[in-house]
Write a structure and sequence with these properties.
Two copies of one chain form a homodimer.
Chain A (H helix, E strand, L loop, with lengths): L1 E8 L16 H13 L5 E3 L8 E10 L6 H9 L6 E8 L6 H4 E12 L12 E3 L5 H9 L3 E4 L14 E14 L2 E10 L6 H13 L5 H10 L14 E8 L15
Parallel strand pairs in A: 3-10, 5-6
Antiparallel strand pairs in A: 1-3, 1-4, 2-3, 5-9, 5-10, 7-8, 8-9
Helix pairs in contact in A: 4-5
Chain lengths: 262, 262
């Protein structure tokens, strides 16, 4: 029997999603709970990897196991064992042939940064302070250039080994909200898949355009040439949240619809 | 020379604001930094105490000392020494006769709780999950009863030693925002002063009314009799944020205006 879980975690104290020796990872903490629930070792498959420090409002995982616990009750059985920073939001029986790694069609990430004279302790956990003033209209203009099917070779960290660097970005939105006297910017990107560090590089480049340290021409050139060095630095992990993973069929109810934390 | 600081802190890892032996408190961390900046021990005075776990978006403190550093630059001098969870947002020379303890005229606190089937790791740091469904209109009706000058004796924790339990509440608002599939409720209270745990008791009672476990009549009765046992339990500290302290004269610019984190 295959089960699908909608999970959420605060990435601050996780060394990423994937199991690694001697590290507290999302996979290892979930698999420890799964072994207690199912009585045997259980492997958890993720719809994709997230780096150390990255958060998730709605990651999707699946696992195979046999239990008399009804699918909908597995959520509670897991949550009794899980720590405060990792919880199962929904648990269901998987549709026929479902594989969360292969079946994911769209993912939405949100990157948050803010401008303020000082570090704001109440924003620092899920957002990154940046220097200077940024121009929302310029960021939106730059964001529009990324929408569509492109070769995003310039938008990936070195050392990544994806077979193809062509991805489709369905939307990139940039919003600004006043929070605690600061301006908080949310860059929300939906695509059919992402290269390693791609959203963090996109967020960095949009910030660079917004504060005048880069231009739309740089983005066009980077998309054309695949040259990473044309783009601004990768933004820190803690500003990134995986919000939503979508499949051919809708799996979860309202809780899958994320409205953003701010 | 007296200086006034606007400070913010994430209360999670502080044992409250006031210095205590062997504890990490806001006062002790600030005074350690102050001693390095001024070269002599410096006492920090707060506009009021906050409990362990309570956050502050805009607390106001003052201190007396002599330094050649311009008042506006003290912010940076302190922030270089302060940890990520406690920062100075603004530093100015105090107006004549200013005392942040005696001169505070209005304080605004926000209490956050949310309804969701599971604990949401990304909300848990600054909000508390509550059971059941709550009715916003009922909470607002109950909130209106608290506005005005009342004897809030029923709305304080036992063991508190305030001379008078009469306080003026200028406003109580209750708002609801959809966040990550949950409903997040923000109870925002502005008053001329607060008794020990008063906002946390108000938030608990409004929740109780919202979910049908208490009624407006209970609040009226509690205001009349001063009987704490008529009211719901005190809500946990982590949902509480001191947003704003106001004085006879406005001290700080836009950063003093808090728009709420969500």
């Amino acid at each position: 029997m295959r089960y699908v879980f909608l999970i959420s975690f605060d990435g601050t104290h996780f060394s990423g999603s994937q199991r690694q020796p001697q590290c507290r990872t999302v996979q290892s903490v979930l698999e420890d709970a799964a072994q207690k629930v199912f009585g045997v070792p259980v492997k958890i498959a993720f719809s994709g990897r997230t780096d150390a420090g990255v958060h998730a409002a709605g990651q999707v995982v699946h696992l195979d196991g046999e239990t008399s616990i009804p699918a909908e009750k597995l959520r509670e059985a897991f949550n009794r064992l899980l720590p405060e920073d990792l919880k199962v939001l929904e648990s269901i029986a998987a549709p026929d042939g479902f594989d969360c790694t292969c079946s994911a069609r769209r993912k939405t990430y949100c990157y948050r940064f803010y401008t303020a004279a000082s570090t704001l302790p109440l924003l620092e956990r899920y957002a990154v302070r940046v220097e200077g003033r940024v121009d929302l209209a310029r960021m939106r203009e730059a964001a529009a250039l990324l929408v569509g099917e492109h070769d995003f070779a310039a938008f990936r960290a070195t050392g990544s080994s994806a077979k193809t660097t062509v991805r489709t970005v369905f939307s990139v939105t940039v919003d600004s909200t006043p929070v605690y006297g600061a301006n908080l910017y949310e860059v929300r990107v939906t695509g059919n898949g992402f290269l390693y560090n791609m959203v963090r590089i996109i967020a960095g480049e949009l910030y660079a355009v917004g504060c005048g340290r880069a231009s739309c021409a740089d983005i066009e050139q980077a998309l054309k040439t695949g040259d990473r060095t044309l783009l601004f630095r990768t933004m820190p992990a803690k500003g990134l949240t995986l919000e939503h993973v979508e499949f051919d069929v809708p799996l979860f109810g309202a809780q899958g619809e994320n409205d953003g934390i701010f």
